[in-house]
Amino acid sequence: MWSQNAIQATNAWLKEGLKPRCITRDLKWGVPVPHEKYKDKVFYVWFDAPIGYVSITASYTPDWEKWWKDPDNVELFQFMGKDNVPFHTIMFPSTLLGTGEKWTMMKTISVTEYLNYEAGKFSKSKGIGVFGNDAKDTNIPPEVWRYYLLMNRPEASDTLFTWADLQAKLNSELLNNLGNFINRVLSFVAKPAGAGYDSIVPDAPNAESHPLTKAYAEKTSKWVEQYLDAMEKVKLKQGLKCAMAVSSDGNAYLQESQFWKLYKEDSAACAIVMKTSLGLVYLLACLLEPFMPSFSEEVLRQLNLSPEENLSFSEEKGEIAKAKSPWDFVPAGHKIGKPVPLFKELKDEEVALHREKYAGSQAERSSKAAADAEASKVANQLKGSKLSDGGPKKEQKKQSGGSKSKTAEADITVAKLDIRVGLIRKAEKHPDADSLYVEEIDVGEGTPRTVVSGLVKFIPLEEMQNRKVCVLCNLKPVAMRGIKSHAMVLAASNEDHTKVELVEPPESAAVGERVTFAGFSGEPEASLSGKSKTWEKLAAELHSNGELVACYKDVPFTTSAGVCKVKTIANGEIR
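Below the sequence we write its predicted structure tokens.
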């Protein structure tokens, strides 16, 4: 099983025709060629490195042949970036076949595209990006790095590392979702009798007959099935998403159960909810162990279970079957350990420091600052120019209030708008309005915003799911047919308003990052005042240009991953 990009890269080499390729280099550093005639040469690293996989195993154990010469019982999986594909799919296998011996050949290869950094590429020479030692120096825990990089794994296309996205995923997904669920469950169980269970797992007979618990157990079982399927197919990102969905459902289960009321009003039902939730905590530790092993070990310690004995998830031990009855994972009467928070919030000031520290050398930052200054200068020049027909300008009538009025107008800039990259988590038809959608949109705040949009006639419901959009976040909330809308999705329309398209940020733009405009700086208004008509005045200047780029006047909507665009509507108005 090979990833598609591995197949494409290999076929490209084969189509060129196999030709002689040098396996040595004239360098001082490297593995020397063991031949007197070539003593001044070293092996080319990617000819030698795959052979090193075998020699490294041999140096680790005298039983190395049980791994490398037992193809009937051993499967070889390899993971790498796309630059290294041909050396592992053509050159290394050819070397093994050329020996005439029975080697374990690669069965599965998973290849990633590029991970870029903020607005450009990683560069060690320029000091741009976060590398191994840098990650350690940030004091951000390894499980956070592992989660972020795997959730952002460029499996099918290039992805982008941004500090804003790392912060959003840590604070929203790890802290507020996963960490909150686990700590909430363990802390309640750990409370003394009369307020909790004094750290003792309660008994929960007839849990399968509890309707809410049964419904969520069925959901959990389906997520586990999808998780196992994704992991078997080396779809690591999808596997991680399935595991996190178990946590999201766990939070929903707790909230819907209202366990704090059950504890006083229906102790048997509360025991079922808490024992089931403890089982979900255990299950999450197992599902997430391939991604965040240190996190999973800590969760088991807080459950007072041995990581060495319990961190497995196999059919042999029956764990997979138990996913259908999570209340069976942790036995009644077991005493849990001491709950402690698993994640710490990453604050804005910390993000700013990290972004500055890893933005590159002083020279690079100076060059970037100069470029930004030049961009601002051009933008300011454009702001002062007339972009219509170039004809003679009519003399403007003087307004009463003179300079005061001009000052007020000058204060209204596009920087007043809080436009962010949003991700539609869910969209559905409004129950009381045929022309409206109700969306749940993640804008990097932890809890998605409810947004109502009049897009039913223009965009099919299936195209509103799980897609990135530009969201105006500081409009005053307004009720639309009984549902309050807390933001507005921006879209472009043609001249007669018969066609509407969403304004789309780049796929790799970070959820929650603010859309910016070169030459316009400042903080957005907390809430756009209806009296000032700021939004109405600025909206008149929003449009898509001839190249389908969303603009304020002539200045593009810009994210760290590039500009925002529409699909086909040129010179349309944006609202």
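The chain has 18 helices and 21 strands.
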